[in-house]
Description:
Elements: H1 2-31, H2 33-78, E1 85-87, E2 100-102, E3 104-114, E4 123-125, E5 138-141, E6 144-152, E7 157-161, E8 168-173, E9 179-183, E10 191-198, E11 208-211, E12 223-232, E13 238-245, E14 254-260, H3 263-276
Antiparallel strand pairs: 1-2, 3-4, 3-14, 4-7, 5-6, 5-14, 6-7, 8-9, 8-11, 9-10, 10-13, 11-12, 12-13
Amino acid sequence: xxxxLTFLQKYYPLLIFLLLEVFALNLIVRNNHYxxxxxxxxxxxFTGNTFETWQDITGYFGLRKQNRKLAExxxxxxxxxxxxxxxxxxxxxxxxxxxxxxxxxxxSAQIVNATVNRKKNFFLINKGxxxxxxxxxxxxxxxxxxxxxxxxxxxxxxxxxxxxxxxxVAARIEKNDQGGLVSWDGRHFSAGVMKGIPGHVKLEKGDTxxxxxxxxxxxEGLPVGYVSGFKKNRSDNFYTxxxxxxxxxxxxxxxxxxxxxxxxxxxxxxxxxxxxx
Length: 277
């Protein structure tokens, strides 16, 4: 209380001056149409700019939450697209059977840590065993193939991306169905190589490379990249094809994990064949 009285005693002339100024301005604005319009316009602009700035701030902090919701919604949509199902040729059906049987399910996840400038890059995502993630599941983004789940903990997983010198993806040239393997040469994260394409095949820059479907990890037809160049090897008459990856790994934030619902059945059959040989 003493400090307040001291403050008022010290600055009361200034306070009285400011009050008189406010009173005078109020009289001018109330009794002069021009000044009233200028004042109202200024207040409106100030208020509008203040609310716009506040919305920008709150929108920025809500962006991550919104992105997560969009990723989850996209995962639900992917679970219903035709590439997630396989045709069934059964001639006898029960009442609730359909022509297609779902083979792939998609789970959205966020990348919480990543490297793109090493020979053996890894991505850490925020989904693990508790969310149904298992080793060897495929990982994609809205733009194309990312990699494969390498290891899993309770709530996190490590992804082995294409941009790891130990990774490769079974792929094919979309326009002619010629298959090969896409891998990374350890240089720039935007480019890789494709091998296994015979020298007689006609290639052009810009040709689309997609997953071949000959894998337990990915359905057929997912974008892998685009032909950026090619050179025929004299030693074996096969091409070494330059690949520009479909995914920008440096800006990747959200991914989808692919669960192959028929993987166990496929693996058991492959093991049985190996045991017979």
